[in-house]
């Protein structure tokens, strides 16, 4: 208790706010590999990260950013070169077996046996985790129900749709009741309907059991589903926060104009734009960032028409997560490429 002074001048105890329970914590985490001709390749560079118990956290980044390498380190499947990390309260170097007991892992590519039934896949996995036959039967029935696959439990995996297979893999990762579930690109290759089904299951899992979900993705709409986002680029964590806070930090709206003569129109727009406002021209038209973009459109259109330049389209939009990524890395996520 920290004492405070009341209106009568007497000291009264004020309780401290409890510290959040951390599911994942890293400090200075590094993973390097020997490169050609004596060089060193750094896959993860000095990662400092805290993820609270019960949180849904997304690692957002392009191909080669270090997302999957970080998950391998956190699941004690690879040894860090430097720094340290704890997962579910266990140090990944000092107590790797305990880490593995308390985490579930959904790999980017399917590892189900297509010739076995859904139930057989789960029971084999349960036995590998050391569950007794009785416990394995009970947990298999429970996770199949959670995944909405009870009626398909005796179906061969090869007969299941892509969305059903992914839900089955999530169910498999839950068999040993992990405290932290790592999902590496959980909906890659699925159609929009199947992706929505998977996320519905993940939200239900979090709400029912308070599970911690650590997701890597390059899908912006998936990142929007998460409580917080960490943007990783070239092995470095360049920004983190809630989706709303990250977008709010960008601040200004994006205005895009397409005209009959974009290069000439750019000069007119530059004369009107606020000082230090970057006005760019590319195949999409003229773009700039200004506060209250909708209010700027009439002014810009009037000036352009007065200069004899026809405005074909004009739009204003609030910042997106792709804008956030561009702000911190200098390129859009789509241009950078998705994946691992």
TrEMBL record:
Give the matching InterPro entries. AAA+_ATPase, ABC_transporter-like_ATP-bd, ABC_transporter-like_CS, ABC_transporter_ATP-binding, P-loop_NTPase
Q: Name one GO cellular component term.
A: plasma membrane
**Chain coiled-coil ranges:** none
Q: Which GO terms describe its molecular function?
A: ATP binding; ATP hydrolysis activity
List, for all copies, the residue spans of the domain called ABC transporter. Answer: 24-259
Report how it sits in the membrane: Peripheral membrane protein
Q: Name one GO biological process term.
A: response to antibiotic
Its keywords, alphabetically, are: Antibiotic resistance, ATP-binding, Nucleotide-binding, Transport
Among PROSITE patterns, the record links this protein to: ABC_TRANSPORTER_1 (PS00211), ABC_TRANSPORTER_2 (PS50893)
Please give the PANTHER family that the UniProt record associates with this protein. Answer: ABC TRANSPORTER ATP-BINDING PROTEIN (PTHR42711), DOXORUBICIN RESISTANCE ATP-BINDING PROTEIN DRRA (PTHR42711:SF19)
Question: This protein is called what?
Answer: Daunorubicin resistance protein DrrA family ABC transporter ATP-binding protein
Which organism does this record belong to? Streptomyces gardneri
